[in-house]
């Protein structure tokens, strides 16, 4: 069983046909669907045949109810606390070079409190995935540490994804290094800009340290794993797909290189379609 604690939000993805023009219309493909790094990780894990569980906080609104139902329909077990705050929304604008600009309203997700968690939610969990987004703000920060304690007490492993350069800078890179030393994750994921912002050797902070390189693949120790060539439609969620596939492969006995090779294949599939989630059968 893999469990992630963190955000379940609505993604609004906008892919303009050409560069946006100020004060004018731009024809675009606009899709609306589930998002949030924790939820995406679970969705991809479930699509790979893993048992997956999400602990999150959403608004007591139609959006939150629909997002939970959609995730459950994809095979994820969801423990969602309800809040008077609205469910979070992220607007994702895809640029002409498949680059992303995101406007974020995390909404109810960051208000998850340690005392709201139930110990039985962590029974049977072999791996806990903690996005950086679940560490950057209170009170979800303490909730994430409570989850780490619960899973560690049951013999489970920990994966951390650094999530965001902006989030790291606001939280403090040195402070994050201290957090990682405190949590001792087996798995640590970062993009190259996130790894550079952290400013500490990742392989000294985790057993399996992986740098995600987007279209260039991934770096595992001295090995560069090349991604297969694909037409990039939307890179949203590809890193979450990579992390889920890598963790699943290692947990089933694969070495780091084999796991990374599998993970770049899954993430290449993720970028070939709009939205952050795997395709439904």
Q: What string, H for helix and E for strand, traces the elements in order? A: EEEHEHEEEEHEHHEHEEEHH
The N- and C-terminal alpha carbons lie at a distance of: 22 Å
Largest sheet: 9 strands, mixed
Rg (C-alpha, Å): 18 Å
Would you state the CATH class? Alpha Beta
Write down the overall geometry. globular
| Integer count of domains | 1
What does this structure look like?
With 281 residues, the protein is an alpha/beta fold. It has a single domain, classed as UDP-N-acetylmuramoyl-L-alanine:D-glutamate ligase, CATH 3.40.1190.20. 33% of the residues lie in helices and 28% in strands. It contains eight helices and 13 strands. β4, α2 and β5 form a beta-alpha-beta unit. α1 packs across α7 and α7 runs antiparallel to α8. The longest helix has 16 residues. It is globular. The mean pLDDT is 95.
